[in-house]
Structure formats: structure tokens, C-alpha cells
């Protein structure tokens, strides 16, 4: 759904961000801004700020930032049109009706109808659970120690033994066979029609907006399969949804618990672990990891303690790492799963196990160790060699050394011996092996190799894939990057100052223009900032709307408007800092221009401007 920029800006400008956010977060005024605990990560000291002047929010802890529209999108997991409609309704603004193509309208109508059918089915199953013929399902759930509140909270139900029970109910509501077949709840063929689910305890599967998109069913008594899930439909893709996420996304914990099944999630939520989720009868996927990444950067795997659970954990670990999620593995022995553990030892013991959860890499080493007889010298040597190979997965030298230390402690291997073995292994395996590891998602060989000294070491720090004469090139690299980072920081600071105090535009008039912001994104933003000031309508939150379709750019621009400013420009020290920042931005711009000057005349003009900078003084009084 597309809305014109002026409509979006009207909705945003008539939606006070402090008013909206305070409905979700307890805010306290400090100076010109409001502060509270960040709703997007767990924290004890408030670092989440809401600025009524900028009409923006920003967390100095996790970097979440944006305007009132993106706050609703992030917190409620709304799409852009959904968030805009909520705000428009609240502000009393009627959004223009958007014409949809015939095909698009048909698809939208189909999805709405399927959602209606799923909701009716969920209510029907929940009702059947409390009827006499549903007693078998209810007793199963209560024997698993689930309370009535928990059963109600998760909308659990029961599908009757009659094979066309739900079909007849929904036909009575007027739905056609074609639509009912699309729902995935029925098998409709020339041989007849019957329900997919019968004689099963039912688990409604909800998306992050609490809409029923599918079902899982656990058979009562004998029968195969033991657990049955809805097939793929227009609504349901099991590789892109996680059971319990609709509740877990509101948890205050900074990490998520990933388990194997419905009952584990429900038992953990009932015990107070409301950050638990599970994949839906399928192996953990990259799509699952990407979905989790929206809400957390840390997970604890609580898979079953049997061989299948261990294999599932080993599959999930690299997938989580690939999207940037830190991972630990919980030890549930002597019990098989979280439900069994909590029933026997209680929630406090489970919480303690979470605190003791093992680093995923060390867990992998433990599992690797099980394949070797360490009483056999040859197998012990082979184990150490495999450990050394795994340690080479860390391209950063410092991180790798930290893990060498940890493995040496855990496996009782002498630290120096292990470190030398890692270096020898790197030299022996060579680039081809490391490149194959890189293609599997384990980091760059070049990065790894540069940072591993040759066995025996040299004072020069020359490494096996870097000729002695080339060392100077690499030493120059950090200096260049440091200069580039300094230039970017100066541009960020200047933009933040101009946003914080628009009066400063008059102080830099004739000195700085948007063209002096050489970073491509900063230049684009600077043009909007300068144009807004000249028009007398500078709106940081409005500028953000232009980047809403690019998550990475959006976050960077939000941070751009909230660069760290220690104080206002009241002190002489800060006035000097502002003047120096302006000069740095201008000098960097002129230096870059001098490198691309078209002719000698242009170069002379640049040199003249560079010389004038030496005597430039910006007065803020």
C-alpha cells in the first residue's frame, strides 16, 4: 500500500511521540527530553530517550531509534501501512483509499477470509475442549500440569473424533469448498471431504500480531503422526514462524529461549519464562534466525538432552551465528526436556541452569570430544587437531586467543601447547582449506591468516600469506581508516548540533554547505536538513520517513540525529569543540576536492580556501 509523502507526514506530525510512547513505556522528564527503560532490550538504568522537539526516540544502549511510525512498527511488529492506519485513526485522519489491482484485491480478500476461518476454527476447538467428548483432551492437558488460565491464554482446544466435524460447522457459516480447501484444514477430493485434524489436542499458531495462521495437533492415544501441523498456506509458512513469539516478543528478558515443541513453550511460559519460543515441526532455519534477530541478539538453546536434541543444537548454532545472534546451550540432564525438568526441579532450578548455560563453541567442543577415546594417544592427538581446526574459525586474533584460553581450561590442555598447535595447523592447512571454511560461513581466511604469526614467531610480525616487503601496506591501513572514521564522526556531530540548535545555521552560513558532507548518506541527509532550515520547517522525524524502506540506512540516520553530545554549547570548551568540528568538516571536504581538481585554476582556489581555514573563527556569542 502506497501513501503520498504529504499524507505520511501529516499523520506523523499530528501524532505526538511522547503521548504514543508513554502508552508503552513509563517516561520521566529530564531536561528537554523524556527517559525510560528501553522496550527493545533488557536494561536496569534508563537509556531510552524520547525527544518532543525532534519527535524521535533513541536508545543509547542498543541503538534503536526512529519516529512515532517506526516505534509502532518495532513494538507491535506492524507493517508500515498498519502502523500508519493506527496513528491516522487515533489522530482522526482519513487515509486516502488506495486503488488495488483486481489480482491484488483478490489476494488480500483471500487472506482476510482465511484469517476469519482460522479464528472461527480456533474458537470452535477451544469450545470443544470443555464439552463431554473433549474431556480426553482436557485431561491430557491437566495431567501435563497446565492450568485453566494457561489453556485459555494459549487458546488450546480439541478436535473431535468425528472426521468431518469442523467441515460441517464452517459450511454452515457459508464458506465454499474452494475457500475451505485453501485454509489447509480439510482434505477435499472426489473421494470425499474430511478434517485434517481429528481426535487431537489443538495448538493454534499465531503470528506476531496474535492472528491465528495455522494449527498443530497432538493425537490422543495411538496414531501417527504423533504431532501434525497445518500444511503451507497463503498464511502459514512454518519456516518463517515461531510458536509463542507473539507472547515472547513482549518479554523483558534480553534473551530468548528456543525449545523443540509446543508443550515445552507452554510449560515454560506458565513457569514464568515468557521468552520461550519453538520452531514448528521443522528444523531451525535461517528465516527463523532472521525473525528472532528483530527482537534479540542472544538466545539459549533448550533442546532435548537426547541425541536428536544435541544434533538439533549443532544445526542451529551456525545458523544463529550467521545472523549475528550470540548463542548458549542449556544442560537439562538428568531430564529430557524443559517441561520434565521444571516439573521435577522447579522454576528456580531451571533459572539457575539458564545462568550456567554453556557457550555454544565450548558446547561444540564437548560434543566433538564424545567421538574420541582419549585413553588412546592417537585418538587424543586427533581430537586436539580437530579442536585446533575449530579454533581457526575465529578470524580475529584476540577473540581466537580468548577461546584458546577457554578451551585449554575446559579440556585441561596446556595453553601454550594448544596455541602453538593452532598456529601450526593454520600453516599446514593453507588457504584452500580456510576458503572452504569461509564459504561455509566461518569467516575470512585472509583476515585469519594475517593475524596468526608463523610458528616460532618473528619480531617483524610477518605472517605466512604476507611477504616481508608488504608489511608497510597493512600498517598504513589502520591510520587511513582512523582518518576516515574521524571525518565521519565530525560530520555526524555537526549534523546533530544543527538539529539540536537550528540557530547554528546562521553561524556556519557561507562556510559549510551540504556538499561538505562527503559520506553519501550524510550528504543526502544534510541536503534535507539545510533545505528544511531554509524553509523554516526543519523536521528530523519527517526526514526519517524518507529512509523507512531501508532498515540499515534508517538506523544510521536515527543515530546520526543522536550523536553523543556531552553538553550544550554553553561552555567555552564546547564552543571551541563546535568551531573545531566545523573546521574539520570543511577541511576534509577541501582535501578531497584537491585530490580531484580538474585544472590548476581550480586547485589554486582550493589551496586559497584551505589557507583561509587557518584564520577562521566562529563566534557563538
Low-pLDDT segments, ≥5 res = 438-481
Give the tally of β-strands: 17
Average residue-wise pLDDT: 84
Q: Which CATH class of the largest domain? A: Mainly Alpha
The biggest sheet, with number of strands, parallel, antiparallel or mixed sense and barrel status, is: 6 strands, mixed
* Count of folded domains: 5
* CATH T-level topology of the largest domain: DNAb Helicase, Chain A
Strand content of the residues, in percent? 5-15%
Radius of gyration: 30 Å
Number of helices: 26
| Gap between N and C termini | 50 Å
Please identify, by name, the CATH architecture of the largest domain.
Orthogonal Bundle
The best one-word shape is globular
Lateral strand order in the biggest sheet: 12-14-13-15-16-17
- Percent helix among the residues? 40-55%
Counting helices, strands and paired strands, the structural category is alpha+beta
Could you describe the 3D structure shown?
- The protein has 621 residues and is of the alpha+beta class.
- The chain folds into five domains: 5-91, Alpha-Beta Complex (DNA Primase, Chain A); 103-229, DNA primase, catalytic core, N-terminal domain (DNA primase DNAg catalytic core, N-terminal domain); 242-365, 3-Layer(aba) Sandwich (Dna Topoisomerase Vi A Subunit, Chain: A, domain 2), CATH 3.40.1360.10; 371-450, no CATH class; 482-613, DNAb Helicase, Chain A, CATH 1.10.860.
- The chain is built from 26 helices and 17 strands.
- It has a six-stranded mixed β-sheet, with helices on both faces. A five-stranded antiparallel β-sheet has the order 1-2-3-4-5.
- It is globular and about 90 Å long.
- Mean pLDDT is 84; it is low at 438-481.
Amino acid at each position: 500500500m502506497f501513501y503520498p509523502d504529504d499524507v505520511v507526514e501529516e499523520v506523523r506530525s499530528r501524532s505526538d511521540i511522547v503521548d504514543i510512547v508513554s502508552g508503552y513505556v513509563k517516561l520521566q522528564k529530564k531536561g528537554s527530553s523524556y527517559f525510560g527503560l528501553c522496550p527493545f532490550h533488557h536494561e536496569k538504568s534508563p537509556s531510552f530517550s524520547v525527544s518532543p522537539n525532534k519527535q524521535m526516540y533513541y536508545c543509547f544502549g542498543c541503538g534503536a531509534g526512529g519516529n512515532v511510525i517506526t516505534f509502532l512498527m518495532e513494538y507491535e511488529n506492524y507493517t508500515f501501512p498498519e502502523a500508519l492506519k493506527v496513528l491516522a485513526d487515533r489522530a482522526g485522519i482519513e487515509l486516502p483509499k488506495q486503488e488495488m489491482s483486481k489480482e491484488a484485491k483478490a489476494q488480500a480478500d483471500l487472506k482476510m477470509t482465511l484469517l476469519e476461518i482460522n479464528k472461527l476454527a480456533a474458537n470452535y476447538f477451544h469450545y470443544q475442549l470443555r464439552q463431554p467428548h473433549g474431556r480426553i483432551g482436557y485431561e491430557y492437558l491437566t495431567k501435563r500440569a497446565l492450568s485453566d488460565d494457561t489453556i485459555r491464554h494459549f487458546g488450546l482446544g480439541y478436535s473431535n473424533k468425528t472426521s468431518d466435524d469442523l467441515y460441517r460447522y464452517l459450511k454452515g457459516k457459508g464458506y465454499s469448498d474452494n475457500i475451505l480447501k485453501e485454509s489447509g484444514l480439510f482434505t477435499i477430493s472426489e473421494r470425499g471431504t474430511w478434517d485434517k485434524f481429528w481426535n487431537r489436542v489443538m495448538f493454534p499458531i499465531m503470528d506476531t500480531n496474535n492472528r491465528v495462521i495455522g494449527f498443530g495437533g497432538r493425537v490422543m492415544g495411538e496414531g501417527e503422526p504423533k504431532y501434525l501441523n497445518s500444511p503451507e498456506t497463503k498464511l502459514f509458512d512454518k519456516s518463517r514462524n515461531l510458536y509463542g513469539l507473539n507472547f515472547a516478543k513482549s518479554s523483558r528478558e534480553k534473551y530468548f529461549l528456543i525449545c523443540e515443541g509446543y508443550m515445552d513453550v507452554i510449560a515454560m511460559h506458565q513457569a514464568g519464562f515468557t521468552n520461550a519460543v519453538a520452531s514448528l515441526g521443522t528444523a531451525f532455519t535461517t528465516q527463523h534466525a532472521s525473525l528472532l534477530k528483530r527482537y534479540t541478539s542472544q538466545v539459549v538453546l533448550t533442546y532435548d538432552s537426547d541425541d536428536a536434541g544435541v544434533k538439533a543444537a549443532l544445526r542451529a548454532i551456525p545458523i544463529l551465528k550467521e545472523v549475528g545472534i550470540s548463542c548458549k546451550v542449556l544442560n537439562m540432564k538428568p531430564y529430557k526436556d524443559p517441561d520434565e525438568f521444571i516439573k521435577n526441579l522447579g522454576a528456580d532450578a531451571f533459572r539457575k541452569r539458564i545462568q550456567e548455560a554453556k557457550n555454544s563453541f565450548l558446547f561444540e567442543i564437548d560434543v566433538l570430544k564424545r567421538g574420541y577415546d582419549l585413553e588412546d594417544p592417537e585418538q587424543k592427538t586427533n581430537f586436539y587437531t580437530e579442536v585446533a581446526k575449530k579454533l581457526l574459525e575465529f578470524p580475529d586474533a584476540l577473540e581466537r586467543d580468548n577461546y584458546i584460553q577457554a578451551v585449554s581450561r575446559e579440556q585441561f590442555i596446556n595453553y601454550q601447547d594448544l596455541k602453538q598447535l593452532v598456529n601450526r595447523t593454520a600453516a599446514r592447512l593453507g588457504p584452500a582449506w580456510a576458503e572452504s571454511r569461509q564459504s561455509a560461513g566461518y569467516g575470512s581466511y585472509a583476515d585469519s591468516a594475517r593475524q596468526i604469526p608463523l610458528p616460532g614467531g618473528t619480531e617483524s610480525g610477518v605472517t605466512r600469506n604476507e611477504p616481508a616487503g608488504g608489511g608497510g601496506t597493512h600498517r598504513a591501513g589502520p591510520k587511513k581508516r582512523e582518518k576516515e572514521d574521524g571525518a565521519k564522526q565530525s560530520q555526524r556531530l555537526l549534523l546533530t548540533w544543527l538539529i539540536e540548535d537550528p540557530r547554528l545555521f546562521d553561524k556556519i552560513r557561507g562556510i559549510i554547505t551540504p556538499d561538505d558532507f562527503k559520506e553519501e548518506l550524510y550528504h543526502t541527509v544534510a541536503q534535507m536538513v539545510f533545505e528544511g532550515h531554509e524553509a523554516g520547517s526543519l523536521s528530523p522525524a519527517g526526514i526519517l520517513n524518507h529512509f523507512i524502506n531501508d532498515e540499515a540506512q534508517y538506523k544510521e540516520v536515527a543515530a546520526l540525529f543522536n550523536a553523543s553530545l556531552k553538553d550544550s554549547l554553553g561552555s567555552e570548551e564546547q564552543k571551541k569543540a563546535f568551531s573545531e568540528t566545523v573546521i574539520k568538516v570543511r577541511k576534509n571536504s577541501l582535501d578531497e576536492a584537491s585530490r580531484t581538481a580538474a585544472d590548476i585554476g581550480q586547485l589554486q582556489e582550493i589551496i586559497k580556501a584551505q589557507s583561509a581555514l587557518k584564520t577562521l573563527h566562529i563566534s557563538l556569542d
